[in-house]
């Protein structure tokens, strides 16, 4: 956080922080920055629809105050593509039918990217068998446990898991 309360960087662009310190990061994204990809689901941190990346780590934006992120880099679903070219994980979600209604998809994708960074750093999960391993593997149980904070009302979990597994195959161990 910067001492002067400077702007937050969202998808590479500076966005002024709100005057009201009670504004959530989610509301800043949707109402001030006009980025509607990040969804407001439960507004209680239970569904994961609002997941974004802050300095590469996944954050539930409905539980975060915008002022906490002064000087930090926030990446939303809109910031993942390279121009008109979607991120490989976005393409995999389409190919594996990892969504039906699509409401949870932005949070699922951002969470998966943050999750993969955790795996690459060797952060264990509840089901990690060998806590001393240099990096945790990403088998089906690991993947599902690490993504368990993101809910899909349509039940597209198999497609989500397949898309994530395919995109990140070979990046661990």
Automatic annotation (TrEMBL):
Q: Keyword Magnesium on this protein? A: no
Q: Which molecular function term from Gene Ontology is one that the record holds? A: oxidoreductase activity, acting on the aldehyde or oxo group of donors
Ranges for domain 2Fe-2S ferredoxin-type: 1-80
Q: In which pathway does it act?
A: Alkaloid degradation; nicotine degradation
Pfam families attached here? Fer2 (PF00111), Fer2_2 (PF01799)
Q: Which Gene3D superfamilies match?
A: 3.10.20.30, [2Fe-2S]-binding domain (1.10.150.120)
> Is-annotated flag, keyword Coiled coil?
no
Q: Which UniProt keywords apply?
A: 2Fe-2S, Iron, Iron-sulfur, Metal-binding, Oxidoreductase
User: What name does the UniProt record give this protein?
Assistant: Xanthine dehydrogenase YagT iron-sulfur-binding subunit
